[in-house]
């Protein structure tokens, strides 16, 4: 077993950077890594000095799926007992924006992890898909649901049932990723996006993220009610007062997260 940590971390200003680091298996996601990733993200989510989380893989692979060796001989009872999807729910509950820096393979669980992020910056080299059908299973960490909501039934059925990969340009065209950049800029562009977000009012960022995510899970009427509540609640923050005063004074606002 490698002595290298499977997650590398650093903080740049208000941006927490996490890099997946299992190069020998193309950053395959095992249970231990997912538990540690959820722990890290929850820690950053609770840290007032952090505004944005940037999650990256390597140039060759964001994450090429789940670690098959970690579950090849498991039974259905084994899979239920290990409760691996609890870690994914923890990541889903992160309130701060998560920016993904994606290059190379984003397959299976890697595609599902990518879809847990809020802004996805993607290299032109990316290959994105849910090829679980090729090994006798199907997506289980939200792949059939989030992919369908993002790209529609026809493309989702094609990807999930045939196992074919989407190119970065296809993914952008179908609304699965946010931006596609040349291979040499996949990380620097994502970091630039994260830094831009880190200058925004933190409470408004969390509220806006929550409201957008709510659009996928609620009726339009219920989602509009919640949007209006979140909007009005922001008028009790100092950042709203500062932001509007700065606009009227024609100066740059200084947000404090209060």
What does this structure look like?
This protein has 258 residues and is of the alpha/beta class. The protein folds into 2 domains: 7-198, 2-enoyl-CoA Hydratase, Chain A, domain 1 (Alpha-Beta Complex), CATH 3.90.226.10; 202-249, Lyase 2-enoyl-coa Hydratase, Chain  A, domain 2, CATH 1.10.12. 46% of the residues lie in helices and 16% in strands. It has 11 helices and 10 strands. It has a 6-stranded mixed beta sheet with strand order 1-2-3-5-7-10, with helices on both faces. The protein has a 4-stranded mixed beta sheet with strand order 4-6-8-9. It is globular, with a radius of gyration of 19 Å. The mean pLDDT is 95.
TL;DR of this structure?
The chain has 258 residues and is α/β, with parallel strands linked by helices.
